[in-house]
Amino acid sequence: MSSPYSPPPPLGPSWNSWGERLNAWLSLTKDKLRYLTSGESAAEDGVMVWTRDNGHAAVSLNGKYEPLSYGHNCRAQIYTTATHSAASSSTAYAITWENTVYSEDIEVDDTVTSRINFARAGTYQIDFSCELISSNSSTKSIYIWPRINGVDIPFSTIVTSINTNGTRLVTSRSGIFNVTAGDYLEAMFAVTDTAMIIQGSAATAFAPASPSATMSVTQLR
């Protein structure tokens, strides 16, 4: 008796019958991994494919192909030490980025440094934070929100207010975004009073300097 883990021996009344048994064994024991074609439906659960757009293996489940969370995951950690101030109130400005801690298929644009470019499609978690300071004692607010390809993301704005002179405050938020290859992300801000600025802290004898803003990007799938 042949083992289910080895191909059937070339025995039987004809080559056709052996070929049918060999084909059946291959169908049961060999992976079905192949390239996913455009518009292909996932009619059968448990079929593995390779997706070109995000460089991931994916498996069919409940009528669609779900990327597997292993293999080539894109990620980046960037920050800026520049002071970001608004020339006018109630006007949108983009935060620029000058420093990259690490990156994998996510990069700051060489020409427009407010843009963070995505080389691969996928679902990403984005963690943003910035350090604020006020230079007068009036109540003032800053609005911070993301744009993808120049389009504001609905219901994504952070609003933070300060009403004392010299007060520092860190504001942050995380979000999950779907992007396609070639998309770019920007962090926008606007203030109600130009005395509100985004500025890091200088180093001290007991602590290193802080950036004015940071962004971490991690591909989820």
Task: Sum this structure up briefly.
The protein has 1 helix and 16 strands.
Kindly describe this structure.
- By secondary structure, the protein is mainly beta.
- Helices cover 7% and strands 42% of the residues.
- It has one helix and 16 strands.
- Strands 5, 7, 8, 10, 11, 12 and 14 form a seven-stranded antiparallel β-sheet that branches. Strands 4, 6, 9, 13, 15 and 16 form a six-stranded antiparallel β-sheet that branches.
- A hairpin with a 7-residue loop joins strand 7 (106-108) and strand 8.
- It is elongated and about 95 Å long.
- 22% of the residues are buried.
- The model has no long low-confidence stretch (mean pLDDT 86).
- Catalogue the unreliable spans: none
Estimated share of beta-strand residues: 35-45%
Shape: elongated
Number of helices: 1
Task: Please describe the structure with a list of short key phrases separated by commas or semicolons.
221 residues, mainly beta, single chain, 1 helix, seven-stranded antiparallel β-sheet, six-stranded antiparallel β-sheet
Secondary structure layout plus pairing:
Layout: H1 15-29, E1 48-51, E2 56-61, E3 64-67, E4 75-80, E5 93-94, E6 99-104, E7 106-108, E8 116-118, E9 122-134, E10 140-148, E11 151-152, E12 158-162, E13 168-179, E14 184-191, E15 196-198, E16 213-219
Antiparallel strand pairs: 1-2, 2-3, 4-6, 4-16, 5-14, 7-8, 8-14, 9-13, 9-15, 9-16, 10-11, 10-12, 10-14
